[in-house]
Write the structure tokens for this entry.
Amino acid sequence: MTSVDGPVLPKLIGERVKRREDPRLIQGQATYVDDIKLPGMLHLAFKRSDIAHGVIKSIDTSAAAAIEGVELVITGAELAEHLGPMPIGTPFPAPDHFSVATDKVRYVGEPVAVVVAEDRYIARDAADAIEVEYDELPAVVDPEAAMEAGSATLHEGFERNIAVESYWGGTGVNPETAQPEDDSAVDAAFAEADVVVSQRMMNQRLAPNAMEPRGVVAHYEPGREYLTVWSATQNPHILRTLVAAMMGLGEHQVRAVAPEVGGGFGCKINIYGEEYTAAALSRLVKAPVKWIEDRTEAFLTTTHGRDLLGYIDLAAKSDGTITGLKARIIADIGAYEVLLTAMIPTLTGLMMNGVYRLPVVRHELTEVFTNKTPTDAYRGAGRPEGLYFLERAVDMVARELDMDPAEVRRKNFVPADEFPFATQGGLVYDSGNYEPCLDKALEVADWQGMLAERDAARAEGRIVGVGLSFYVEVCGLGPSAVVPTGGWEHSGVTVERGGKVTATTGASPHGQGNETTFAQMLADHFSIPFEDITILHGDTGVVKQGIGTFGSRSQAVGGAALISAAGKAGDKMKQFAAAMMTDQEVSPEDLVFEDGRIQVEGAPEVSKTFAEVADFAYVPVPLPAGMEPGVSEESFFEPENNTYPFGCHISMVEVDRETGETKLLKLIAVDDCGNVINPLIVEGQVHGGLAQGIGQAMFEEVVYDEDGQPVTASFMDYVMPRAADLPVFELDRTVTPTPINPLGAKGVGEAGTIGSTPCVINAAVDALAPFGVTHIEMPLRPERMWRLINEGGQS
Amino acid sequence: MIPTAFEYRRAGSVAEALSLLQEGGPEAKLLAGGHSLIPMMKQRLAEPGLLIDIGGLDELRGIQETDGEIAIGAAMTHAEIAASDLLREQAPIVAETAAAIGDAQVRSRGTIGGSLAHADPGADLPAVMVALDATIALLGPNGERKVQAEDFFQDILTVDLGEDEIVTGVCFQACRSAAYAKLEQRASKFALVGVAAALTLDGGTCSSARVAVTGASSHAQRLSGVEGALAGASLPDGAASASAGAGDALDFVNEDLHGSEEYRRAMTAVFARRAIEAAAGRG
Ligand SMILES: Cc1cc2nc3c(=O)[nH]c(=O)nc-3n(C[C@H](O)[C@H](O)[C@H](O)COP(=O)(O)OP(=O)(O)OC[C@H]3O[C@@H](n4cnc5c(N)ncnc54)[C@H](O)[C@@H]3O)c2cc1C
């Protein structure tokens, strides 16, 4: 009989367990792509376009090729013999897009030729030595002007530069005709409204700025006909699929590895031309090749985010009841469609339902090509844009009616008993309970106190404002029907000898802390020490299958797959344990995991240790009838729906009357992401998201001049938020679990960027309201604020 | 972000640095903290063939006071200047300005000599040196030369410094009633507009003043209209009217994404007033 005095293992789910990733990350002991050095490795440098739009007349590579240490110089047209146009992941029509431009350049930074050389310095010198002549074309910079007849066009077959046009509205879309069924209801709602607010609003272009830029090492081994690609990517399995297809290989011939990845924020979902180029050139020169993006390249060529112009109209009754929404949205998607480009703006319209009952909606979306860097997902991806437009408009209704912005929102909430709730756009919100979240936020912030504080400050001549926003977002992407790559996630759980556990996840983390949260879940599941568990990820040679990490899916989908695999492994452990205890007539169903033992529930003395059972599993003598040795199980989890977390953010700002500088005094965020595995990590995600959302509201913007030249291509001009710019955040939460997965967890990776941006702008508009200001465009540049203070109106 | 190839030499003395400069000719560049030069090399905006590192030379180090005159060696870093008790006591404007440069990394590497020699239009210390009427000491093949700060700064990134000369240090009279106020360019933290004011006070009255602006124009320069208006003004009350026209008097004003000409002119008046008020508060 086993002794029952062993350590009691505390439950870890819900605990503030410190991230086990951090020591290696902050001590420089982690391996990023740039740390990978292979024998005989060569280096790539790209010659990039310095004009926004033009036809390539000639490329002279002779001087570059003559430099000692240069292996190969290849132009886009030559490379196209080895690499076809790049695949995209959306069903929309798209122009051909080659890894390296073949005949025309369409944005500053687009590659036109590649050098392979002995080291990075020689490669860069040679790239500089390439002479390119262009026939310059007029740059298309303004998306509205781009749609006018007579504008220069980027792509043949895309008249007026329009990539995608969509329209839906009324009370639904007729699936037969794809036409709105009862569009007249929208016009009627607006005609009957007591108040209509209309506003043109810009959701500016942003650069994601992951701390680690992109990078790739590709190694094609001709003898094995096998390609290994290391890349700073959010989704190595998708990388494997697409690189294999581009190289004419099968997935069995490609291994993709995402080593440590220093942030992605959506910009490392796309599989880029540099990744395909590295793979193709490794095969061509028969050597491993490496390319590491520099910061200038990151600004010019890594996908940008946002860049949506909205014409928003919101109708309401005089009591604040919202009666209709019209949104005409123009998305400036840049020069090409990459992996998810065209899909992101479609999420904006879908999420513009917000947390409200909206009787009628009309939504028009046009996606437009311009001579700028292509856009794709950026933290929040479509939701921040939609919620910004909506939450600004709701605030305008409150101001128009002189109502408390909190009360206008409360009045229009989808009530708790109406979940699951189907929106006009066809989404089904899984669960929600908005009023308690609003009440908690008002209480944590002391909303009435804040209003009094604002008024007192105003009486002293200070310029102070308060703002509020309430968001709902979509997480846990999410079922296969809506994700072109498949919407499932995969996990494997192996119980090792000695009772240790190795688990794999296809949700490849790049800052999310899955190694910690997933180990917490397994520690509780098996009731074994946290230290006895390793979570492996980011390597298709180790993790059998996977989709990746984006759309706040790693916990809600990846975590669910993990728990499912753990369930299977646990069942097998119990079968082995029961077999070891046949003399005590124990059946597997009676057994539970408790403090490192597998025991009869309530009878710790009838037990085996987890380690004993694990050892037995690998030397099962005698092998129990009908069983295979070992414990290594796997699961795919397919969610039946997305999850819809929500929250309320409140802020207070002060503006310097003389300079227009805005200071964020307070930010309160009450988020509801369902069940929380690790509050420390959830708060960390919220903090980072808030900084980025505040960054959009106050600091960041990618700016191009009228020739399509970027003017914010370095940190000397692109304003990143810094710690000193931010107040101490006050966080709290409500918990409304999701029924979509067994964990009840919804996802929280993007929440901070969604609620904070409109909340801060609402506060800024409130601050300047006494000057007659009704709207302020982002970011809150001091000069912009200074002009509004002096001139009033709108920016 | 990848510079062209260059040779690196660490000078053992100022004399050696001078002879290396002569040997190297136009290809040669002095390297101090590297926080202006190296970013330019990484962008290939500067492609020197030879770097002569003078950062650690003892001869260029030190902060001393003699008979009311303070001397700072060219290789003193912004962080060292910010931490100097002597400066905090006798010329607090210098320590405070150094403390407000860039961020901790920049302050730990960047030097006063480098900042003055480079003369970025948004650099902070040039305005302070002009307001303090500092003398900049230069050493070249023909010996030493001294230039008043207001003559040293000539145009954008242009100073009175020969290719074969080294800035060895600066000196100025101790002055407590001086202050610097700046509006930061939010990305770089350079001055969008920065104004330094050094006042001679007689009770609440200003008997004379030197006021200089940086960031607003091509180079640091005096705001003589403000100086004139301050003579005999009672402070702090007179600060606003004395500085009201400060920006309008500038010949050339920078304009970029972070601030239009109009805004910079307006901010010149605002920050002139703030600097004067702060300086008067020290009197
Ligand atoms: C991110 C960032 C933010 C910054 N923010 C600010 C700011 O807010 N305010 C501000 O004022 N500055 C700012 N700077 C600039 C910083 O102060 C620099 O360090 C300084 O301008 C140059 O000093 P250095 O010692 O680094 O010179 P270096 O970069 O080594 O040299 C600059 C130039 O001066 C020449 N030089 C250097 N020393 C001498 C000498 N003794 N004699 C002759 N020539 C010499 C060099 O040859 C070179 O041409 C910032 C820099 C960075 C990178």
User: Anything to note?
Assistant: Residues 39-137+213-261+268-301 of chain A form a domain with the Aldehyde Oxidoreductase; domain 3 fold (CATH 3.90.1170.50). The longest strand of chain A covers residues 322-334.
